Amino acid sequence: MDSLIPIITQLIAGAVGGNVGGAAAKDLSLGTVGNTIAGAIGGGVGGQILSALIPVLAANIGGQAAGGGVAGLVITLIVGFIKNKMAAQ
Predict the structure, then answer these.
(1) How many domains does one find in the chain?
(2) What is the reported pTM?
């Protein structure tokens, strides 16, 4: 159970980060559900990668939340950008 807490933290923080990114950049928003899904995926995967690259992030729950939130925000904005470029063609 203890090994699931960091992943759950990163997923939740990623979902929040994705929605913050969508609200901040309305033209890149994927909608509430899209922002949440993209953010959670980004938070889970990106948070794990950041924790492996920067071990101090894995040391505490705040670092895991920050890493997951930032990764979720970035992935949501990247997916929104790609979606907009594909729709313009």
Answers:
(1) 1
(2) 0.90
